[in-house]
Amino acid sequence: xxxxxxxxxxxxxxxxxxxxxxxxxxxxxxxxxxxxxxxxxxxxxxxxxxxxxxxxxxxxxxxxxxxxxxxxxxxxxxxxxxxxxxxxxxxxxxxxxxxxx
Length: 101
Description:
Order of helices and strands: EEHHHH
Number of helices: 4
Structural class: mainly alpha
Helix content: 55-70%
Distance between the termini: 39 Å
Radius of gyration: 13 Å
Largest sheet: 2 strands, antiparallel
Shape: globular
Number of strands: 2
Low-confidence stretches: 1-11
């Protein structure tokens, strides 16, 4: 099943994998299932449902995993920039762009 939430007037759909990760985080208090591929959805759910501890953990995950460029290639940096821009523009999370410099 796909979960939808009302956010700033438009519907956002989340993948099953992201919802499973979010629910697991709520039950365990850990982010063990969080992956780069679902990071944005989980971060968006944490923001939409006002789960401040998970929002902080997502920021740490961004710093430690998303910004850990394994091969130092353009695509990884571009991916990190896209996430930072969307977090700032859509979620008003202004800390993400600061970690890029």
